[in-house]
TrEMBL record:
This is Alpha/beta hydrolase. SUPFAM superfamilies: alpha/beta-Hydrolases. Pfam families: UPF0227.
Length: 166
């Protein structure tokens, strides 16, 4: 299994989280410069459209890109506190000419104490754009803030891959 991990703004995939993901497959984690490249989604689509990517995992800005990429490629996705409703501080273009295959399954993990990307704003976005997803699980973890602790990352990743394997 090939897993595409999309990190958040000014972030990287930690060694601990990489180890967790490697239990499920080969991890591809490109270094993304969201601020200097407003065409990340198009670039990722062009790079991976003909590769055998089985799952996309994204966090924050990587969750934003992962949402749109998963729906263009028709791939399952696990998104942590995705920056879906926010596009003001960092401009990212959503290519209109990409195919819309719709993600067959998404698991979206939202933090009840996230002050960077508020869960209620994501829920509003998702309710207005629900037709983009065929099957969606939304997990709201009350005590979770914006950063994803390793223990929660491990639990949610396991839940995602258990569902993905059915």
């Amino acid at each position: 299994m090939n897993i595409l991990f999309l990190h958040g703004l000014e972030s990287k995939l930690s060694d601990e989280k990489r180890t967790i993901l490697e239990a499920y497959g080969t991890v591809i984690a490109p270094d993304l410069e969201y601020k200097s490249n407003p065409d990340i989604i198009q670039n990722l689509y062009d790079e991976y459209k003909n590769q055998n990517i089985n799952a996309i995992i994204g966090s924050s800005m990587g969750g934003f890109a992962g949402f749109h990429l998963a729906n263009s490629l028709g791939i399952c996705a696990l998104l942590y506190n995705p920056a879906l409703p926010y596009r003001n501080s960092v401009m990212q273009n959503i290519p209109l000419d990409l195919s819309k295959k719709h993600s067959p399954m998404m698991r979206i993990v939202l933090g009840g104490h996230d002050n960077v990307i508020k869960a209620k704003d994501n829920l509003t976005f998702l309710s207005q754009n629900f037709n983009e997803i065929k099957e969606c699980t939304i997990e709201i973890i009350y005590e979770l803030a914006h950063q994803i602790p390793v223990v929660i990352f491990e639990e949610q990743t396991e839940a995602f891959f258990e569902r993905l394997c059915y």
